[in-house]
Amino acid sequence: MKGYPKQYPLDRQTLFGINTMGLMSTTAYYLYTAVLMMFITDYSGIYSGVPGKAAAVATTLLFVGRLWDAVNDLWTGYLIDISPRTRWGKF
Questions:
Q1: Of 49, 47, 65, nearest in space to 57 by CA
Q2: Structural domain of residue 20, as residue ranges?
Q3: Which of 3, 30, 56, 78 places its Cα 20 to 30 Å from the Cα of 63?
Q4: At what angle do helices 53-82 and 12-38 cross, to 10 degrees?
């Protein structure tokens, strides 16, 4: 086994990079959500005279988006599972 190189070197830089990918993905999602909430509640003018109504609309929009994402992921996975295999694979 000495003659074979390691497939994935587990040095500090590699582990730091793998760990940072998840952090950056989460950070980007929450930054997008925060900017969208701020735009809908403060700058869009939706329900500007009713306190709390704009936040309810923004929350509903984000919830519907996440619900659509959940349904769409299941549907896409089902379509991929029933697709015939080709010489290039399932996709």
A1: 47
A2: 12-82
A3: 78
A4: 130
All residues at 6 or more sequence positions from 54 whose CB lies less than 8 Å from its CB, including other chains: 40, 41, 42, 44, 46, 47, 48
Instruction: Give domain status of residue 1, yes or no.
Output: no
Whole-number mean pLDDT of the chain? 84
pLDDT at 74: 95
Q: How far apart are CA 48 and CA 66, in angstroms?
A: 25
How many domains, in total, are found in the chain?
A: 1
Summarised one tens digit per residue, pLDDT across range 6-43 is 666 678 788 888 888 888 888 998 999 899 888 888 88
Distance from C-alpha of 38 to C-alpha of 54, rounded to nearest angstrom: 10
**pTM (2 d.p.):** 0.59
Query: Does residue 6 lie within any of the structural domains?
Result: no
Question: Do the domain assignments include residue 46?
Answer: yes
User: Does a structural domain hold residue 2?
Assistant: no
